[in-house]
């Protein structure tokens, strides 16, 4: 589904942050992406989301070589990906409910077809009482859960999550992990970038470990 071949990435004239990175993400697979701070996890997720272009090497996403796709095709490809950014990127003027329903609204779905799903998912992530709140009044952990719900609501083919449990306590982290596993069971390939060894130890999943710009994979 996703393929990287000898991918290298440098920012501007800086050193190569990623070097000769090659891997394949199969459909419906589940993997953690880990490595020390600054190792390049966020950079790798940005390449997967096609918001960065590699400086060398080949990336194909859903079977398309990203070097040859035109800008008009990008939104359509991205719509198949759910992403949880480290800084959440919620829309501050929209309520929690509206933020989570947004991917469906953008796809032209009638609110009556998704209202129940949005409310159920918000309840599951512990935000049943915060449905009408605006993001600026939420805690970091609450914002993170809104971002997760928004990424999941449309059952994407690929979920990318950058430190998705970084702002919540261990019981909530376990609950969120269960949600990712359930999504995976329903068919989504999942990539979770995390430092959290405790989280990774709960699942027997593939580990992609970045260090010094290179990737090692433990199946
Ligand atoms: N926009 C940028 N311009 C220049 N250098 C950058 C940029 N973004 C990241 N870097 C550098 O690239 C390297 C990898 O950063 P990245 O954020 O991908 O690491 P990370 O593994 O996600 O780190 P963390 O775990 O701390 O979030 C770091 O040395 C960082 O300083």
From TrEMBL:
One of its GO terms (molecular function) is ATP binding. GO terms for cellular component: plasma membrane. It is a peripheral membrane protein. InterPro entries: AAA+_ATPase, ABC_transporter-like_ATP-bd, ABC_transporter-like_CS, ABC_transpr_LolD-like, Cell_div_FtsE, P-loop_NTPase. It is found in: Cell inner membrane; Cell membrane. Residues 2-217 form the ABC transporter domain. One of its GO terms (biological process) is cell division. Keywords: ATP-binding, Cell cycle, Cell division, Cell membrane, Membrane, Nucleotide-binding. It comes from the Bacteria. It holds the Pfam family ABC_tran. Homodimer. Forms a membrane-associated complex with FtsX. Belongs to the ABC transporter superfamily. Part of the ABC transporter FtsEX involved in cellular division. Important for assembly or stability of the septal ring. This is Cell division ATP-binding protein FtsE. It comes from Oricola thermophila. The gene is ftsE.
